Amino acid sequence: MPTLLCVPILVHDEAAAMADALAARDAGADLVEFRIDEFFTGSTDSASGELDDAQVKTVLRLVAGSPLPCIVTCRSATESGGVGGYGDDEMARVSLYERLGTAASVSDTRSHAPGSGELKEHPPRYLDFEYAAYTRSANIRQKISLGVTHPAQVRRDVTTGLILSTHDFDSRPVDLTRRVLKMQQEPAASVVKFAFRARSLRDNLEVFDLLQDNRERGEKPMIGLAMGEFGLMSRVLAPKFGGFLTFASLRKASTTAPGQPTVRELIDLYRFRSIKPATKVYGVIGSPAAVAHSLSPLVHNAGFEAIGWDGVYLPLPIAADDSSDENTYLSFKATLDALLDHEGLGLAGASVTMPFKEALCRWASWDTHAEGSANTLLVHTSWDVDSHCHVDRVLTRNTDSSAVRALLDAALGHLSGKTVGVVGAGGVARAAVWACASRGANVCIFNRRPERAQALADRYNQKLHRGDQGRVSVEPLDALRAARADAVINCTSLGMRGGKNEQGHSTASDLAAPVAEMLALPEHCVFFDTVYNPVDTPMLRAARERGFRTIDGVSMFVEQAAAQFTLWTGQPAPKALFERICREALSVEK
Ligand code: NAP
Asked: In the β-sheet with 280-286, what is the strand arrangement from edge to edge?
C-alpha cells in the first residue's frame, strides 16, 4: 500500500480548519489530521456532566465535512512538543474520543455550515491517542478501545482505527523498540506511531530498521518519523521502508513538528509519489547551515525527474565541531559509514560541501586525488534477492575543479601557458589552483593571510611534476593589480549574501581594496567570481563596468552539479534546466 501523505491542521476556528482541509486536498494530500488540542477545552455542563455540546458538534462537523479522510487528535500537552497541547481534564478528553468514535451510531443530522445543507455525522477514519496515556489506567484503556470497537456501532462506509502513538521531542527513547512492540500488541490499535527528535542522521536509520522489520513481519501499519533538522530523511523516505504515512505541512510556518516539509516540497521537490524500496538515495552532505541553503536538492531532483531516473536527492546535515578538525572528521566518518552500511537505504552518491570536503578525501584515502579535497561521492551498489543493498565500490571526485577548468577553457581557449590569479586560499581556491596549474597554467595566489596561500602553493608545487604542468606562486593581495593575468578568480567569500554585515553583504570597506586591485588589471582579463549568491556580485558588476569578460558563480555551480549528475546517472545533465532553476531560486532569495 502506498505511503499516505497527511496534513496536520491545528484547529482554532471551524471555517479556517475546513479551508485548510480543502487546501490540503488541492495540494495533493491523502489525509488530514485535525489537531483539536487547542480548540477542545474539556469543559462540561455543570448539571449533566456532559461534554460541551458546541465543541463536540464543531469537531463532528469538521469530520463530516472534511474533503479527505481524517485523523482526529487531541494531543496531550506532555507529547505535543510545545505546539498546541491539551492539559485539561483527562477524562473529558477520553469521553470526547469515545463520543467521536461512536459518532456513526448517532442518527440525528447536523448542519455542516450555515447554508450548506445537512450532513449526517460520522466518525473520523482514525483517532490518535498516546500510548502512555492509554496505559495509564484500565478505565482509559477500556473507554478508548470502546470508541473504536463498540459492537453497537453502525458503520456503513467508515470505520475508525486507533493510532497508538509515542513522541519524544528530546531524543530517541532508550526503550523505543520495546515500546513499539508493546503498542503492536495492543489489540485495539490498528496503526502504531512513533516519532522522536533525531540528534543526527544516524537516528533515521533506526527508524528505517523498525519500519523495514515491521513490513517484513507483516505487522500492523506503522508510522515512524524522526523530527528536527536531522530527521527530514525519515519523512521523505517513508515510502521506501513501508511507512504508513508521513506528515507534511500546508505552509512553511504551519508545521506541527520540527523538520516537517510542506506538501508541495514532498510532492514536487522530492517526488514523494515515485519513491519505492529500490529508489536510489543521493544528497548533499554538509553542516546544517550549508545544506539548508544548498541549491543542490532543487537541481538534482529536477534533473532526475527530467531523465526519469529512479533517485531522490536530500539534504544530509552533519554537525561539525568548530573547535576540532579531528572531531569533525570523526562525526563525518561515523555518519557516512553508517549510511553506506545500511542495507535498505541504497545511498548511491553525494555532494559534499563545507566543512567536509577535506574529510571526504581523508575518508577515501584509497582513492587519493591530487586536489586534496573532494566534493563528490559515487557509490556503486547492488541489491540481493532479499532487497538488501550492498556497496560494491566507492569513488570520490572533485567536480569544482572540473567546473573551473571547463569554464576557463571555454573563455581562454586553453589554459596551458596562461596566467591565472586566484584570490583566496580556502576550499574553492584549492580546487581552482589545481584545476588551472594541472592544465599548464601558471597560478598566483593572492590571499589575506599569505601563510595560508604559501602552504597551498607548497603543497601543489610538490605535486606538479610534469613538464606540461604550471607552477604556483604567492603574492600579497595588494599586488593583484600588477599581475599580468589572463584570468582572475575570486575564491573568497567577499560579496556573498549572508557574509558580513547585518544586511548580509560584505562591507564596502571589505570590498574596496580587492575591487580596486581587480579594476587595475589589464583589459583582456577574464574575471570569474565563484560567489553565486547574489548572482550579480559587487565584484562582477565592477568588472563588467570596467569592460572585462566575466564568468559568474552560478555557471560554476551548474557545471559542477552537471558533472556530478553525469557521474551518478551516466547521462548528460540537463544544464539549461539546472541554470534556470538556480537563477530563479537566487532571484527570489532575500
Ligand atoms: P573558505 O574555505 O572559508 O575560504 C574563504 C577564503 O576567503 C579564505 O581564503 C579567506 O581568507 C577569504 N576571505 C574571507 N573574508 C575575507 C575578507 N574580508 N577579505 C579578504 N579575504 C577574505 O571558503 P570556500 O569554501 O573556499 O568558499 C569561498 C566562496 O566560494 C564562498 O563564498 C562560496 O560562495 C563560493 N563557492 C562557490 C561554489 C560554486 O559552485 N560557484 C562552490 C563552493 C563555494 P583567509 O585565508 O585569509 O581567511
From this structure: 311-317, 280-286, 347-352, 376-383, 389-397
